[in-house]
Amino acid sequence: MTQGPESVRFGTHPTDTVLHRFERWARDTPDAPALVAGPDSLTYGQLDARAGRLARRLLAEGLAPGARVAVGTVRQAELVTALLAVLKAGGVYAVVDAEDPRTGRRQLTGAEPDLLLTRAAHRAALDGGTGLRVVRFGAEEADAGDERSEGAPGLPGAGLAGPGRTAAVLFTGAAEPRAVPVGHGLLLAAYEAWAEAVRPTPRDRHLITARTDVTAFAAGWTRALCSGGALVLPARAPWKGEELTETVRAEQVTVLHAGPADVVHLLAPPETPPRPSVPQPRRARGADLPSLRLLAFSGDRLHLDDMAALHTVLRPGVRVLNVYGTTETAGTGTRFELPQLPGPLDGPEERSLLGIPFRGCRAELRNGEIHLTPPGGGDPVPTGDLGLLREDGLLEFRGRLRDRIALPGRSLDPHPVESAIRGHEGIGAVIVNGVDGARGPRRLVAYAAPRPGAPEWPPGRGLPDVEELREHLAGKVPREDIPLRVVSVRALPRTRGGQEDRAALPLPILSAPAARPAGSKSVRPAAGPTGPFPGFWAAGCGGLAVGLAGLILTKVFWPGSTDLTGVPQPWAFLFFLLYLFECVSFGIGLVFLLGGRARMPRRGRGRRLTSAAHLAVAYLLMAWWPQDNFYRLAAKQDWPRQAALVYTFNIPLMIAAAVVAAYVVAKPPNPFDFDD
After folding, report:
1. What residues contact 84, with CB distance under 8 A and at least 6 apart?
2. What is the DSSP code (8-state) at residue 98?
3. Per-residue pLDDT tens over the stretch 347-392
4. Burial (Cβ within 10 Å: 0-12, 13-18, ≥19) of residue 388
5. How big is the CA angle at 48 (ends 45 and 51), to the nearest 5 degrees?
């Protein structure tokens, strides 16, 4: 099965490149804004002049034609300047992560650069003593008054940057980044494909939330600077949360290229805990972004219900485009938006559509796997993803080959199970993963996150437990494919490129059937709205109240047992304290009996031993009050009563102490040995 446009060729000049497109705008509109980054903002003329000076420095350092230059800096305006400078000098750029040196060093290893362009502050962390030749930023930053475009004269870039030559080394967004060489022709063809789909204009202001070292940023800066628009950048670090929304509003951003975390933020209400007694109206974050005309999403699957929700929270007329592509296709591939649907679909929360190819691209299925042909032609690239070509001509995402779970005697594709789970009204995102047990076969665990803007507080409180999940999945998936655990997380972990990161999932550490809302690395039962019960103060106050009542009830049940008449001081006071402690101990034991069981499973000692220990602790606390009162009223010569008291109280106390000792020293069961 194949998708493709009627034509896959463009009418561009054979020596045309993204650098030439930028330089034309710098020549024709030198005063137009090119980079918007606070004090680092530059016009097209200033950016071109600064890139030209840096290009001459690189040539003076002996940069050979086609040499690879790794660029590492946290200053994003400086980084864009460097990319253009490397292209002007006839080199090949590769952006490495200076903010995370561990990733940056791995990227350097993959890119195999001839030179590192960075700052002194980053050099030691990135270079690591490899002996790589280093050029530091600095001289070209001086602002020479009214900078104007210096163009390309005297620089070899125009003559050397043919369509077949490598322009950049891009990195995949996986945990272990892979370097992919990309030619000048592909970068330009990718821009042309985007231009045909989204129609960028010089009035557009583009904001890309992706990290600068992943493919989405390469597609983003070319889309902005080849069309005469402005590229809105953060001063140093990637965009975060509320800062992103405020910047879109303040800088009048018209084209926002976002990832999964950004979409969640747009759909979510403010993160202020609501008061339970006050109804909280849902306020969308995207509703007050009047300048926005296009939201392009990439990085991972986007379900139809989330696309519909984005249309609801954004103002009417804003396009929401789901983009699917690979590094080998320079961020292009297929695109989908809701108007492509011929009619409404059932189960939108279970479907992610990839749509139709960009101009110049082709999408085909080989044994169910999606293969993409880059814009302008080339060999089909296997994506590792599964798809379905629907009768309406739209491509549908159906899971990933690498996500398949090896189970005893079979292999499971988790995508159908995840889609069915996501049909639950309380679940916004889910991953089904296999977890190995030391004393048993691999079992299935569902990691579930709440929907953006869910009214429950704290987040995830409304997620289903395993029994509710089994009931929801009954008849939808085979019984053996139903997960045996539900681990609740605030959000799914993601790779640098935005995809769900199964390797970073937290490990289930409870032996109870269902785990409650969790932190990022360990899973514990969620506290209720007023904190865990019974807390220290709740138990203490409750025990004291019951204890004081016990002093009064003592005279009712055992009249005369606490009579201290004739006992001299200080012994009378000491005995009174003893009676008080016995009553308070009874009260604390009663509180623990009623509410303490919920706190004990976190120690992972097993259900039966935990229940026995719960009763034993309650008995140890509660027994002293009735026992001492009976003893004080029993005559020493009344042997039948004495024997009854011993076997009624003392022997059970010993048994209870033994149970508590066994509970304390027992080794917790392996957290991955699940009960069916």
Report:
1. 19, 22, 47, 48, 51, 55
2. S
3. 899 999 999 999 999 999 999 999 999 998 889 999 999 999 999 9
4. middle
5. 145
Q: Are 216 and 257 in contact (CB under 8 A)?
A: yes
Q: Which residue, 315, 316, 309, 308, is CA-closest to 249?
A: 315
Are 64 and 114 spatial neighbours (Cβ–Cβ below 8 Å)?
yes
The single residue listed with the structure tokens 């804004």 is 33
* Cα dist from 544 to 590, 594, 626, whole Å: 11, 15, 17
Q: Identity (one letter) of the amino acid at 449?
A: A
Q: How far apart are CA 123 and CA 108, in angstroms?
A: 12
Q: How far apart are CA 123 and CA 111, in angstroms?
A: 17
Cα 219 to Cα 190, 193, 452: the distances in Å are 7, 11, 28
Omega before residue 534 within 30° of 0, cis: yes
Q: Which DSSP string corresponds to 105-145?
A: HHHHHHH--SEEEE-HHHHHHHHTT----EEES-GGGS--S
The answer to whether the beta carbons of residues 208 and 234 sit under 8 Å apart is no
The overall pTM is greater than 0.85: no
Q: Report the relative pairing of strands 362-366 and 353-357 from DSSP bridges.
A: unpaired
The pLDDT tens digits for 275-311 are 444 444 444 444 578 999 999 999 888 999 999 999 9
Q: Beta strand 115-118 with 92-95: parallel, antiparallel or unpaired?
A: unpaired
- Residue-wise burial string across 25-41, b where 16 or more C-beta atoms lie within 10 A, e elsewhere: bbeebbebbbbbbeebb
pLDDT at 535 over 70: no
Q: Extract the tokens encoding 605.
A: 């000692």
SS3 of 271, please?
coil
Long-range contacts, 429-432 (Cβ 8 Å, 24+): 429/491, 429/492, 429/500, 430/492, 431/492, 431/500, 431/502, 431/505, 432/405, 432/483
* CB 221 within 8 Å of CB 209: no
Which amino acid, one-letter code, is at 610? T
Nearest in space to 672 (alpha carbons), one of 475, 413, 439? 439
d(CA 125, CA 108): 12
